[in-house]
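Fold it.
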Amino acid sequence: MKTKDDFAEFTNPDTIIGEGVAVEGTLKTLGDIQINGTFKGKLMTEGDVVVGEHATVEADINAENVHVAGTVIGNVSALHKLEVLDTGEIDGNVSSSALVIEAGGVLKGTSKMHETEAERPDIDPTYEVEEGTEVEDQEEISA
């Protein structure tokens, strides 16, 4: 699980939008993206997206995992995990397989959970009762 401290140490993101940098347009990549500045447009990746604590993103985001410590205005779709940290805010609808919102984190929108056959564990509840086992009356023993 990534924390705010991990954003500065995010392991080898392929694309970084630094603090104080403003980018507008469509960004498509196969790798990880870390945004510490401002991004406006559309964001799509097969990797992870990290929105830093001081970042502002006005875009729809589609990614493998999304970690938000800053502000996102737009819809977010994470194939696996969407995490809103205590300083994070999303103003839009979200969809993911797992959603974590820390105390202080804000989601202004609706949430839809993905569920695919591949992600669902094979668990069949069993209600087995041993045959021939009876409960015998127990006598109370007093001293």
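Confidence is low (pLDDT under 50) at residues 1-9.
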